[in-house]
Specification:
This protein is mainly alpha-helical. The protein folds into 2 domains: 121 residues, no CATH class; 161 residues. It contains 12 helices and no strands. Helix 2 packs across helix 3, helix 7 packs antiparallel against helix 8 and helix 11 packs across helix 12. It is elongated, with a radius of gyration of 27 Å. The model has no long low-confidence stretch (mean pLDDT 75).
Length: 347
């Protein structure tokens, strides 16, 4: 008969191997599964409400919610594309007219004085003849092909990850309650502790998502105030662009405002362009670092400084998804410590 200690050791080793194998299998989809879990946690109450409204048809409710997420992700990008198309056509027409009237020299002549030396140096560094241009293109052809290949590969990967995320989201919304019940039975914790951790997960994710939307909205309002004050054309378009890119943590909205300011300077509006660049860095960019931790703290009882460094650390280590991983890691640690002190710490 095998000793109990040996059987226990073998069982632990098998469990470790199984977990390692599961990590290897799930690694290619880790980001997609994590984002799907975040969205499922935030949207599960709406799915439950819709399923009750549809008389228990949970599959239909999960499909409708997943479709809504898809539309919410693609809709703003499509709207931006539709709004951007006339701007692109207008810009191409302006460049064509400038080239036909005065050529590149005419464009440089119309540029504001602070920018002229830079443009002249750029023109001097360009090849002087078409033969030289062809030689440069031939020499750099392989690099351009490699860059294009990497771009196509990244686009395909993003599309694949998005599809996986939507599939996972649908099944999590469909079988979420059953999955929670299975986890309660499978994970060796006291009854109810898994549900408590999942409740903490949902609370943090909802707080992070709402804080992202609220911060992007405030940044967009501040940005559009700068656009209107400096006479930027089509402020509604730039408001939408600022809001959509403002959903990218700590970068997006500031990038739009600064880019618009640089464009204003290049078109001769040096004063208003300089103001927008300063406004983008000093106000729009700074308010993101202040508001987001405050909004998250409103839904998560953790000190604002801890949340701030968790956000920054998560972004540096995990990239964009770290914006969620950082606060979740801190919240989970707090929840585990709280449960330990309550159940085993004598308090």
């Amino acid at each position: 008969m095998v000793p109990a200690r040996t059987a226990h050791a073998v069982l632990v080793i098998l469990a470790i191997l199984a977990i390692a194998l599961l990590v290897v299998i799930a690694r290619p989809f880790a980001t997609s599964l994590f984002v799907a879990a975040v969205l499922a946690g935030a949207l599960s109450p709406w799915t439950n409400w819709l399923a009750r409204l549809l008389r228990g048809r949970r599959k239909v409710a999960a499909g409708l919610v997943t479709s809504t997420v898809l539309v919410a992700a693609i809709g703003p990008l499509s709207a931006l594309g539709a709004m951007l198309a006339p701007q692109i056509v207008s810009g191409v027409a302006w460049v064509r007219a400038a080239l036909q009237s005065g050529g590149v020299a005419g464009i440089i002549e119309k540029a504001p004085a602070p920018v002229k030396p830079l443009l002249e140096r750029i023109m001097e560094s360009l090849p002087a003849s078409m033969e030289t241009v062809q030689e440069v293109v031939s020499a750099q052809g392989s690099k351009a092909a490699a860059v294009l290949g990497n771009l196509l590969s990244a686009t395909g990967t993003l599309l694949f990850q998005t599809v996986m995320m939507l599939v996972a989201l649908f099944f999590l919304l469909l079988d979420g309650p059953s999955l929670v019940g299975w986890l309660n039975e499978a994970i060796p914790l006291k009854r109810g502790q898994v549900s408590e951790l999942l409740h903490e997960f949902r609370r943090v994710t909802v707080a992070v998502l709402l804080s992202t939307l609220a911060t992007a909205g405030v940044q967009s309002l501040l940005a559009v105030g700068g656009y209107v004050a400096t006479g930027v054309p089509n402020p509604v378009f730039f408001f939408v662009a600022t809001f959509v890119l403002g959903l990218v943590p700590f970068v997006g909205a500031t990038l739009v405002v600064v880019a618009v300011g640089v464009l204003r300077m290049l078109t001769g509006h040096v004063g208003s362009g300089t103001f927008l660049v300063i406004w983008g860095f000093a106000v729009v960019g700074t308010i993101d670092n202040v508001l987001k931790p405050l909004f998250i703290r409103g839904g998560v009882p953790i000190h604002g400084a801890v949340i701030f460094f968790a956000l920054i650390g998560g972004l540096l280590v995990f990239g964009p998804v770290g914006f969620l991983v950082g606060p979740l890691s801190v919240a989970f640690l707090v929840a585990v410590v709280r449960m330990y002190r309550r159940d085993w710490g004598g308090r």
